[in-house]
Structure formats: structure tokens, C-alpha cells
Amino acid sequence: DKEVRAIFLRLFAQLFQGYRSCLQLIRIHAEPVIHFHKAAFLGQRGLIENDFLTKVLNGMAFAGFVSERGPPFRTCDLFDELVAFEVERIKAEEGNPPKMIKHVRELAEQLFKNENPNPHIAFQKVPRPTEGSHLRVHILPFPRINEGRVQELLQEGLARSQGAPPATRGDKKCVVPAGPPVGKFICS
């Protein structure tokens, strides 16, 4: 699953390489509006007549991508790093499948680490009941809950949580790296 996602991550990094140089921040509105200059992007890459890329850029998904990833000051992620710093590596690996597979596996591992930051916490799956288990008579009824004990546990948890610092995710906003300009790439 992660390797397939890594392949698509590489594909979109190649497809949108240099997109940040075609973003325009329009400040005439109360909130700044981010506009993507499609003609400049396609023209600088020599892909004006490419129907696929034109349709991708005209789609709603790409409009959402621009509004989400357009701001120059936001939390950066793996895609931003790929677009800004790894485009040359991706280009160099085109003719070398073993290097490409190694990079895909590295990206897949990074995606896994991003989604599972605490590997020591394991979630055990509850097994499904066996066939016909609902017909067994010897199953004991669920025990009654002791309301006093529940209140004690709640009070203990509240006391612990009041003394502990709030748990927050460390998303630090930074300036998004622009990467190489679009004109540097000529696609076939």
C-alpha cells in the first residue's frame, strides 16, 4: 500500500515540478487569493498541447491542491521536499530501475513513519467470533458496571491530565521551499 502511494507521490512530484513558480498571490481581497498561472506553467514546460496535463490543471482536485498548498508559509511535508529537492534525483533514476525501486521503498518507509509515529504502540485486532458462537449457552452475561469505581477512575484521569502539559502535534509552519523554476525542466 505504501509503495503504491510512494509511486504516485513521485509521479505527482514530476508532474507538478516547479508549480510554485507559477503561483500568484492576489491581495486585493480581504483574504489573499492564490492563483495558478496555467498558461505559464504549460508554456515553460513546452506542454501547451498536452491534453492530459491541461485537464488535470483544469480539474477541481488541482484547484483544491493550489488552495491547500499555495500559501508560502505553512507546514511542509514529504511532497514539498520531493518537489523542491528531489526532482533531479527522480530524473536521474528514470533509466535505472533498481535505484528507482530503492527510492520508492525509502518514500514508502517515510510515509509509514509519518502515519505511525509511535511504532511501539501496537493495536491488537479483536478476532471474529467463531461460526455458531452465538448459539452457545455457556456464555456468561456481561457483568454490571460498578458506578463508584467508574467515578474513581474518571477522577484519577482528570487529576493526571490537569498536571500534564497539553498534547499537541509539533507542526511547525515554515517557508515552503520553491524548488527549481519551471523553465529548468523540459518534458517529453
Automatic annotation (TrEMBL):
<dbReference type="InterPro" id="IPR037516">
    <property type="entry name" value="Tripartite_DENN"/>
</dbReference>
<dbReference type="InterPro" id="IPR051696">
    <property type="entry name" value="DENN_Domain_GEFs"/>
</dbReference>
<dbReference type="GO" id="GO:0005085">
    <property type="term" value="F:guanyl-nucleotide exchange factor activity"/>
</dbReference>
<protein>
    <submittedName>
        <fullName>MTMRD protein</fullName>
    </submittedName>
</protein>
<feature type="domain" description="UDENN">
    <location>
        <begin position="1"/>
        <end position="76"/>
    </location>
</feature>
<dbReference type="GO" id="GO:0031410">
    <property type="term" value="C:cytoplasmic vesicle"/>
</dbReference>
<dbReference type="InterPro" id="IPR005112">
    <property type="entry name" value="dDENN_dom"/>
</dbReference>
<dbReference type="GO" id="GO:0032483">
    <property type="term" value="P:regulation of Rab protein signal transduction"/>
</dbReference>
